[in-house]
Structures are given as structure tokens and as C-alpha cells.
Amino acid sequence: MTLQLTATVERWPIAGAFTISRGSKTEAVVVVATITDGTCAGRGECVPYPRYGESPDSVMALIDAAAPHFAAGTVTPQTLLTLMPAGAARNAVDCALWDYIAKRDGKRVATLVGVKPVRPLVTAYTLSLGQPDAMRAAAEKAAHRPLLKVKLGGADDLDPARIAAVRAGAPAADLIVDANEGWIAGIFDRNMAACADAGVKLVEQPVPEGNDAFLRRGTCPVPICADESCHTGKDLPVLATRYDAINIKLDKTGGLTEALAMARAARDHGLDIMAGCMLATSLAMAPALLIAQSARFVDLDGPLLLARDREPGLVYDGSTVFPPAPEVWG
Fold it and tell me: Among 275, 281, 243, which Cα is nearest to 262's?
């Protein structure tokens, strides 16, 4: 059947600003792919990420280049793995293709890929990087949430004070730390010790990709999760020697198809899984919820950090996120 693949760039304002070790932003820029046969249509959303050399223009160009293959009616989720490289563009197209197949066949994607039942899950809620007093105030406002993700990695010596301030502000919450590659070797031990003192459950990507060879799985006072070092299943043999967990993000794997295979392979390697996201709308979170069903940690709070979400969107009750309705995705 002949299909039409198109894409558009959208901009969604963030509630305030979102700050990590690499800088701040006030809007989420996403690309939405649509696949249609004229009767049924499927959508998928991705976030072009400059850290990986992506931009809205580069993602749109990759999607445009793939469009003639859909017009020929020969693309499946498996053939898409070789048609497009892993990354944000393929993620949008892969998720749109799964959504289209589900709507065409009248079945949920969860059923098609063998993930069931799909249940509500508790997601982390992210606190942006800032000065210790500001982060304590943010933690106090979010202290009712069961799981907080704390952005660290400041270009100073304040991370121990930051995590102590967050712990003081939210004494009952479980904490995850994400340093976004911001710790150099000289401060690694000190910052890990501060995280252990604060009862942190997991530290994401403390050191830069390519500078993590000194890590040894199971030897740090807090379990360590690979994020920027982890893209697709081919990375797992090395990561399994260094890290305790991996963060599976569909924008890195290049879609749900590779993410599902990667999750199975990660379990074979004895790695815990975090289901993560970029800052985006419910359309991007919905397929990631299928990965989250078997994850130890869930971090799918993108819509909670936006000034507004698309409608219809996912239902969030506090930190609990519910499975998508068919009109949202899948």
C-alpha cells in the first residue's frame, strides 16, 4: 500500500526554564512525523538533540529522504532499522509507523509487540540545576512526589551542597542524580560520596562519554547508569562491564523497535533499565511507556515540565502516568 510520510517542526514552551550541565532552554523543539494512507494516520514525535549533532533541519532532511520508500509501500519497522540511522529522525518515523499499523489493524501497539498488560507507573520528576538554596526550594515544592531526578554537574564545587540541599528539602523522596557528563575525574569520588550520604538510588552519566573506562560495574557507592554513553544494543557488551544500569531513550535508539530489542538484551546482560525521555510532549512519552513497563526506574515527566501539553495527552495524576488512549498514540 502506498503511504505518505511527512513531518513538521513544533515548539512547546517550558514552564520557566530547564537547566542542566550543558545550559538552559525555555522551549522544547520537536519534530512530528505523520504516516498516512489517506484513511488511517499514525504520528511519532522526536527531539533533535545538539549533543548528538542533530538539529530540526537535519532531522527533517533525514525524514524527507526516507519518504520515497514509504511511497513505494515497502517499509516495515524491521526494514526501517537499515533504512535510517539510529537517532531522533528514525524515532519519529518508527513511532509513527507503529501508530499507523495499530490504527490500520484496530489493535494496540502493546499487543502487537507483546507488551501487556500496560499499567500506570510512577515517573521521576526533574529538578533543574541551580544554586543550592534554589534547588532546596524546588525540592520542597516537589517533596510530595515519590521520586525526584536531580540535575547536577555544575562547573563549580557545589554539587555536594546541591544534593544535600535537595535531600533536606524532600526528606522522604527517593532521589536519582543526573550529572549529564559534568563530573571530571578529580571530583568524581567526592560527588559520589555526597550522593551516597544523601541516599541517592542511582547516578546517571557522571563523566563524559569516552572518559568512562575507569568505571567498574558494582564498585561505586551508588549504582551508575549510562545515558550519553548508551545508544543502541551494540553498546551493551562494553557498558555491562562499567555500568549497573542503562537509560533507554527512544530518541537515542531510533525508535520503539530497537528500544524493545535493547531492553531484552540489557536484561540478558544483567543491567537494570531506566526508561528515559527528552523534554517533549505526551506524543513522545506514549511509546516509551511500553519500555517503562519492565524498567526499574521511569523518567517520563516531559509533559509535566512544559507550560502546556498537546491535547489529547497522557493523563498524569501527580507522578503517576497512565497508559495512552488510542487517540494519543498506539
Answer: 275
Residue 15: band (very low, low, confident or very high) from pLDDT cuts 50, 70, 90: very high
Radius of gyration, CA atoms only, the chain:
19
1 pLDDT above the threshold of 90: no
- Alpha carbon dihedral 279, 283, 284, 285, in 10-degree steps, equals 90
Q: What are phi and psi of 309, to 5 degrees?
A: -110, 165
Domains and CATH numbers, the chain: 4-106 (3.30.390.10), 121-321 (3.20.20.120)
What H or E segment, with its residue span, contains residue 195?
Answer: helix 185-197
Half-sphere exposure of 230 (CA within 13 A, CB side): 36
CA dist., res. 312 & res. 330, Å (int): 13
Q: Which residue do the cell numbers 522522604 mark? A: 172
Candidates 151, 201, 234, 252; catalytic one: 151
Q: Does residue 108 surpass a pLDDT of 90?
A: yes
Locate cell 504516516: which residue? 35
Active-site residue, 249 included: yes
d(CA 87, CA 97): 16
- Active-site choice (25, 141, 201, 249): 249
d(CA 179, CA 192): 11
For the question of residue 116 being annotated catalytic, the response is no
Distance CA 66, CA 85 (A): 11
State the cell numbers at 274: 531506566
